[in-house]
Write a structure and sequence with these properties.
Layout lengths: L2 E7 L7 E7 L4 H11 L7 E5 L22 E6 L20 E2 L5 E6 L5 E4 L1 E2 L1 E4 L12 E4 L14 E6 L2 E6 L6 E3 L2 E3 L4 E3 L5 E4 L2 E8 L1
Parallel strand pairs: 1-4, 9-10
Antiparallel strand pairs: 1-2, 3-4, 5-8, 6-7, 6-17, 9-11, 11-12, 12-15, 13-14, 13-16, 16-17
Length: about 210
């Protein structure tokens, strides 16, 4: 079966344009699945549209049936989710109610380079950057690194903090987006206790954990 060369473009990628060679009889739905896996995108509803005319591709059709030829640019985007659909979080992995911090201490993280601080007011407290195709996702982040330079080195849901009986804990979420505590790797699902002045490293950022008051 013949192959075509297309460019897949998305703000969801660290490098916004990716050229790829694919079978022209490949269904759009399969291409969406492969793109999510290849670029480690969170679960959700995605679509392709043709850059030249803005047409959204039918996921049940093949590239050939959709008239896609070599040189085409396909824009991958994530469909926005309304507040009514998910009142707690934009990330499927975090479909749970926020809970206020119950302990007596107010914790915060401080970016070592810029001095920007992030108060930890609820849990689970996600560290990450917003989904570029869904600006509302920023509201789900307790530590939103999106506005800082180098944020693309951080996953949209990179790590999380939780609190129990006044003690704070750090957890990794996925192994391909590593999280380090004082230079020690935290595996996905692993939970480590935090102490004042601990250093959390995600992407290019080093965040200092501490308490107020």
């Amino acid at each position: 079966m013949a192959r075509i060369v297309v460019t897949i473009s998305s703000d969801l990628f660290d490098d916004t344009e990716q050229e790829t060679s694919i079978r022209e009889n490949l269904p759009i739905r399969t291409l969406l699945t492969e793109a999510k896996r290849e670029f480690s995108l969170p679960e959700g509803n995605y679509s392709f549209r043709v850059k030249s005319n803005g047409k959204i591709l039918d996921p049940e059709k093949t590239l050939e049936q959709s008239g896609i030829q070599t040189g085409a640019v396909l824009i991958l985007s994530r469909e926005r989710r309304s507040v009514q659909q998910s009142q707690y979080s934009a990330f499927p992995e975090e479909e749970m109610p926020r809970r206020a911090i119950a302990g007596p201490k107010m914790a915060f993280l401080r970016d070592e380079d810029t001095g920007v601080t992030f108060d930890i007011r609820w849990q689970p407290a996600i560290i990450g950057r917003p989904d570029a195709s869904n600006p509302e996702s920023a509201t789900s982040l307790a530590v939103n690194l999106g506005p800082l330079e180098g944020s693309k080195t951080v996953s949209r849901h990179h790590a999380r903090l939780s609190e129990q009986n006044g003690q704070f804990f750090l957890e990794g979420i996925v192994d391909h987006n590593p999280t380090y505590l004082n230079d020690s790797l935290i595996r996905a699902g692993e939970r480590r206790m935090l102490e004042a002045n601990d250093k959390i490293r995600v992407g290019k950022f080093t965040l200092i954990f501490n308490y107020k008051g």
